Amino acid sequence: MSNNKPGKIDDVLLIMQIVQVTGRLGLSVTGAMCGTFVAAQLTMTNAELFGSAGFIALMVLVGILGFYLGIDLLRVRGSLTEPELDCKGIDSIELLCKIGTLLAAIAALISVYAFVFDEPLRRSFEYMVASWWMIGVVLQIRAGLIGRIRLARTAR
C-alpha cells in the first residue's frame, strides 16, 4: 500500500474546486455582460435614472451575483444510487433558478437585439424587459443562497 493515495485525492479535490470556481467566474462574467447590455438598452430611453453610472454598475453587479450564485446549484445527494427524480415533486430551488435564468436571458437577448440593431422599443416594453431582468436575477440569487444555506445545514 502506498501513502500517496490521500495526497492524490486531495490534489484531485483541489483541482475540482478550482475548475468549479473557474466555471462560476465564467458564468459571472456572462451575467455582467448581460447586465451591461440591459443597462445599455435602458440608457437609450433618455431617462436620467437609467443613464447614471450607479444604475449601470448595479445592473452589472446584480448580473454577476445572479449568474454566479444561481445557475449552477450545488446538489446534495444521499448516495450515487439515489434516483434523479424524486417522487415528492420538483425542487423549488431549482425551479426558481431555472425560471430566473430564463427571464434574465430573454431580457438580455431582447436588449442585445435592440441595442445592436438600433431598434427603439416602446417605453412600456423597455420597462417590462428591465423587470424581467431584475426578477430573473433576483430569483437566481435567492435560489442560490437558499440552496447554499440548505447545503451548509445538511453538512453539519
Low-confidence stretches: 76-87
Beta-strand content estimate: under 5%
Protein structure class: mainly alpha
Shape: elongated
Query: What Rg is obtained from the alpha carbons, in whole angstroms?
Result: 20 Å
Number of E strands: 0
- Number of DSSP helices? 5
Helical fraction equals over 70%
The main β sheet shows up as: none
Task: Compute the average pLDDT.
Answer: 79
Task: Name a few traits of the molecule.
156 residues; mainly alpha
Structure at a glance:
This protein is an all-alpha fold.
How would you describe this protein?
- The protein is mostly helical.
- It has one domain.
- It is built from 5 helices and no strands.
- Helix 1 (4-43) crosses helix 4, helix 1 runs antiparallel to helix 5 (123-155) and helix 3 (53-70) packs across helix 5.
- It is elongated and about 60 Å long.
- The two termini are 32 Å apart.
- The relative contact order is 0.15.
List the helices and strands and how they pair.
Elements: H1 4-43, H2 48-51, H3 53-70, H4 92-116, H5 123-155
Helix pairs in contact: 1-3, 1-4, 1-5, 3-5, 4-5
